Amino acid sequence: MTLSVWRFSHQLLALASSLFLLLASVTGIILAFEPLVEGSKPYSASFNEQTIGQTLEILEAQYPEILSLEVDRYNRVLLEGIDAEGASFRYYVDPESGKKLGEPEEKSALFRFTTNLHRSLFLKSVGRFFVGLFSFLMCLITITGFLLLLQRQGGWKKLYSKIPKEDKSSYYHVILGRWFILPILIVGATGVYLSLEKFSLLPPLALEHRLPEQIDETMDGTASYELELFKNTPLEELRKLSYPFSEFPEDYFEVALQDRELWLHQYTGEALSELSYPFTTLAQRWSMLLHTGQGSLLWAIVLLLVGISLVYFLYSGIRIWGVRTRKTKKSSVVVVPAEEADTILLVGSETGNTFAFAALLQKALLDLGKQTHVAELNSYQMYPKAEELIILTATYGEGEHTTNGRHFLKLLDEVSQQQTLNYSVVGFGSLQYPDFCAFAIDIDKKLAELPGFEENNPLFKINNQDFRAFETWAQGWSAKSGQVLKLEPLKKKKKKRRYIPFEVIEKSALNLDDTFTLKLRPQKKAKFTSGDLAGILAEDGNIRQYSIAKVAGDLVLSVKKHEHGLCSTLLSQLAPGDSLMINLQKNHEFHLPGFAQHVLLIGNGTGIAPYLGMLEQHHSDKEIHLLAGLRTKESYELYKPYLEAYPPQTLELAFSQEKEGQYVQDILQQKASWVAKGLENEMVIMICGSLKMQNGVLEVLENICQTELGVPLSDFENMEQIRMDCY
Ligand SMILES: Cc1cc2nc3c(=O)[nH]c(=O)nc-3n(C[C@H](O)[C@H](O)[C@H](O)COP(=O)(O)O)c2cc1C
């Protein structure tokens, strides 16, 4: 079965039973306190291997007439009898001294009310039926959830491996799911079992004893505690012992032990009848214990946590579902039929984000007059008028296809187009997964092999739905086609951005590369750190983001002035004393992780900026190396004051426009064995700057890992040892 079927079932079942589950969870939380309250009362005894016989001897010496003796789940010994004044009594006793401990109390009104609600919703049999049904649905929800978890984690072996942090609700939904799946399944299954039993759908629990035809007439006065069974059976084995009605040998002891029931001749101790409990009785008792926690404080606490976790699952599940439905609503407003379109935009998406990118692209293509048809990968068909095919796709599982793209590779073989299609593939993935954009890579390879397809733009991979990277791809497309694709900014969440005023403290002159640095001081309380992003609103209403450094509390950024760059022009015109509004955004993935002791910072051009702050902040607690790619020696002057104030352990500079014509990749390759050793010793490598440089560096790193260590780079990516912020 496919991922989407499991997800659909999981969501549908959860939605259908959400009200019941909420009610059952809240009442379950209250009822989990019952065993805690009961267990805390001072009536429980420790039996210390005491036998039934020893207990009877102690009790018979103190109480003139005993009717029955019962040991309950809390190890409380309940004695029923008639006292010297002829009055009947029923109380807990200490089996070692025979002393009265206290009288059984009635179940509290709160627990009675809640039990009724939990068991039958106050609807008697009808209610019980629904409770049983919903308990069954809860089992199905748990099983489908587990299958989704397996899919997500990439199999059993990785079930407890790291969970990439996406949004908070999914993250904790999965974390709690891993821990509570088994207890929830137990609660659900025992709930179903107890309901079946109440509807007499299971064999009856009562045993059918039969007396033998002949009963020994002996009445020799042997004391009951002398009887063999009582002498040899520990008290903890006993559930209930009922004394004979009279002294006649036809009346017998009724003994219920943990595993069987006996009728004992009251003088000879002969077993007149002995029947073992069938499986159903034991299952009923275990179900009761596991469903209610009665008798086990530890399990009662687990049940309490199960109740709380179920409430959280409902809350987070509804949030996840809401977010997905919103995202999956494909915002493509214009519908161009496949038969009419000259441009085909096919999308592989699971949770809808890629559709949001596709919608922007479709809009931009339509603006260029291209008749753009948008569809899922699985809808691939003949496109009689198409000239161009653009594929945007995510990757799931262990580098696998999205559900809506699972037939695509097969369809490519089966459906042949009449004319040649120019194609471009854009992969959306996450570097937190070992097989980054693997599905896009597969598609790209397949198209390259098939006749009738010609590559228009090379495969482009985007990490973490990075809109800046998508813009870079669009620029590549524009350069190739000679038409400018104008993408509207991605409307992610309609979060109100908070802008904080900063004052310009310093601005360097433009260097040969048209690059300059800005030092800005917050005019209000502002929380940020090196590696975070500064969003600056340009005249066209779009926001440009810059990686920033925090140096002595000030914000430092490096900007390359582009000829037509609205934002970079605006920034280049600032002078000390001017004010600038900045929207600060946390960029956790590009912070130095706490565990890192050795760090290799790799950057080119303006991508060096965040490192200036990291060097200052972590100068004393980490060993930091910097490998920087610049055009000329003069380009270095911009960063020199910062790097001299807090110099890295080693500084390597690659100048692409000087005689030696070096790139950071070249230096990295020269240091291959040092890099490999570092990675083995938990060194963290950070990469900031152009995507071209990032791709080159990743290629060299992959090569180093394979040749020097015999492992893929993804091993280190998964350990969060590779961190990137490229654009
Ligand atoms: C369960 C799961 C598995 C994923 N597996 C991969 C993977 O193997 N490779 C990869 O590059 N990205 C992987 N991703 C990341 C997604 O492909 C990425 O977040 C993508 O942008 C999601 O797009 P969508 O919202 O359109 O589905 C995975 C994400 C999830 C939730």
Automatic annotation (TrEMBL):
Highest taxon of source: Bacteria
The protein's matches in InterPro entries, at most eight in alphabetical order, are given as: FAD-bd_FR_type, Flavdoxin-like, Flavodoxin/NO_synth, Flavoprotein-like_sf, FNR_nucleotide-bd, OxRdtase_FAD/NAD-bd, PepSY-ass_TM, Riboflavin_synthase-like_b-brl
- Signal peptide boundaries: none
GO cellular component, alphabetical, reads:
cytosol
GO aspect biological process, one term: homocysteine metabolic process
E.C. number(s) listed in UniProt: 1.16.1.8
- Keywords annotated in UniProt: Amino-acid biosynthesis, Flavoprotein, Membrane, Methionine biosynthesis, S-adenosyl-L-methionine, Transmembrane, Transmembrane helix
Flavodoxin-like domain location is 343-482
Protein name as it appears in the record: Methionine synthase reductase
Look up and give the organism this protein is from.
Aureicoccus marinus
Organism ancestry: Bacteria, Pseudomonadati, Bacteroidota, Flavobacteriia, Flavobacteriales
